[in-house]
Design brief:
Elements (H helix, E strand, L loop, with lengths): L4 H17 L4 E3 H15 L4 H4 L4 H10 L5 E3 L6 E4 L2 H9 L4
Antiparallel strand pairs: 1-3, 2-3
Helix pairs in contact: 1-2, 1-4
């Protein structure tokens, strides 16, 4: 997978918004992709062409993988992603199980 630091910087606040406002613990990659497309329309129109491309899902999964403090892959294929909530992060940092 390709890692694009610019995409990671763009994706992080989108993931934080989704985590903070949605009651769900996890989301499918396609749903996260849709949130990114919506955010790009308003805040990063220069990313719209890329996000509409076939390659964007793989690159988005790579960008999400760079954000383990806020989201982690929920399956080995990267099709589903689980939010890291504050309590989970505190437990990980302390070395205790979730």
């Amino acid at each position: 997978m390709t890692h694009d630091p610019q995409l990671t910087e763009f994706v992080a606040p989108v993931v934080l918004m989704a985590r903070d406002f949605l009651p769900r613990d996890s989301l499918e990659l396609g749903v996260l992709h849709g949130f990114c497309l919506d955010a790009a329309k308003d805040h990063a129109p220069h990313m719209l062409r890329f996000l509409a491309s076939v390659d964007s899902l793989e690159t988005l999964a790579s960008a999400l993988g760079q954000l383990p403090r806020i989201i982690v892959a929920a399956d080995c294929k990267g099709a589903s992603w689980q939010f890291v909530r504050e309590q989970e992060q505190i437990g990980r940092e302390a070395g205790s199980p979730d």
